[in-house]
Amino acid sequence: DGFVLTQASSRADFEAALSRLDTDFDLILTDFNILGFTGLNVLHAVRARRTDLPVIVVTGTGSEEIAVAAMKAGASDYVIKTPQHIRRLPTTIRNVLAHQRAVAAQVDAAAAVRDARARLDMAMEAGRMGAFDWDLTTGRIVWSGQHERIFGLAPGEFDGRYETFARAIDPDDLPVVERKIRDAREHRTVYEHEFRVVWPDRSVHWIIGRGRFLYDGAGDAARMTGVVIDVTPRREAEEASRGLQTQVAHLLRLNLLSQIASGLAHEINQPLTAISNFVGAAVRLHEDGKLSTDRGADILREIASQAHRAGEIVRRLRNFIRGKPAELAPTDLNVMVSDALGLLSHELSASRVKARLEPGARIPKLRVDAVQIQQVLVNLIQNAIDAMRDVPPDRRRLTIATIPSIGQVIVRVTDSGPGIAPQNLEHVFESFFSTKDHGLGMGLNISRSIVESHGGSLTAANAAEGTGAVFEFVLPIGDPPLVDPAAPP
Question: Within 10 Å of residue 61's Cβ, how many Cβ atoms?
Fold first, then answer.
């Protein structure tokens, strides 16, 4: 019936077979009374080597004491050698083996669960993740050890109370966290939110919480399960990246400034020369006795006008070179464009480029950082000037249009150059990509980052007429979600 039997007819044979217990045998069948060797001796010898190997004791004595002694010694079952009971032996063997296989399966399953749990713990630790389970009927929250570490606690330190969890969240973030939890519960959606937690040592850490509610038969939320993920390293890297790119943006402003320095010097020199000339004329008229009150007033007005002109040049220069953090303020977009053209007026004149501003009507003031947006404009204008170097002077045209739209304003910069090569269109905003011999390849990349940090977008295309390039950026009307330039997408 599928059994392979190995018989040990003496103590010596049995002891010889003991060395093969680990590989050759699935069950031991022994008599209770053996000459010079009892069933209990067999049980002890087997158990010394294998605790899991089933042993069935066959006894000719129906004594309850013997049965109890055999079971206490580790027998899996026993059968009395009477005609009535011995017929049960095959069934007993099958039952014991089936039980043994079930126990072995449970052991294997438990081991597999432990292994899977260990792998999961390793993966969650590597991913800086922790797990939680919130029983809404009792209010009890269970955190994994990694969850506790993410919140700055030692394993087993969390007391399972919601109030303890809430106290760990940054007070500025707690109302939003609780609102999002309520929304997920009421609308049966997945909860997900990024927030800050404050450790007992007062250090601040960034966490992403994700979870879902489980509902009972009545449709009421019964529990919430989910994970938390420590994203502090990512946040710190983003902060470092933003700081670095802000520095790069400032260096690019200085680089642009160095390119237009001679023009600015010329612009400043003009009003200073005019002031000097007016003062000289006034002195001569006074010495000749010809400086009338009206003439003196006219000269003073001219001097004031030229001083104001010089002051405006210095103001634009000071604003453009500024390296302070981003500052939102209501700003007239058309004035920003005009200032940008003013900064490059000498460059435009020297390059014989005719620039035209087409200001849109009824454009509301935008809450932007004027210095950053002006940097975008100056970079786009400078690029347009460079693009038209090889175009005949009478065909060099630059148009900047401000166009109101629904909820946003469009700024379109169009030149009459040769346009952008099709193979370069998808690369012009990449870091260090440049088609100019003297270019750093960062201007357009920084410009796009600045616009996107204001909640807008910057795109490039070729003009529909077939000549020239069109750079267009969009800024939202209202308060943008401003971050420093170059925030990761």
Answer: 12
